[in-house]
Amino acid sequence: READISFIWGSQDNDAEIRVSFAQTNRFEALVGNQAANTSGTSVWLGFVRGLLTDEQERGVILHEFGHVLGLLHE
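RESULT FIELD:
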C-alpha cells in the first residue's frame, strides 16, 4: 500500500501539517500523529551537527522521528 504523503521543501505555507527544523541544536524529536495539527510551530526537530552521527545513524534517527509523525509510539 502507499501513503498519501507529499513534501514541499522550503515552503512558507502556513497550512503545512508538518514543519521540520534543521537548526543544528542536537535536538531530535517529533510530535506524534495529530499533535502537529495543534501547534503553529515546529513539529519535527532534526538538529544534526555534522560529524556527531554516521550517515547510517542519521538515517535511523530520521526514520524513527517520521515514524512518530505517522503516529507510531515507542513500545
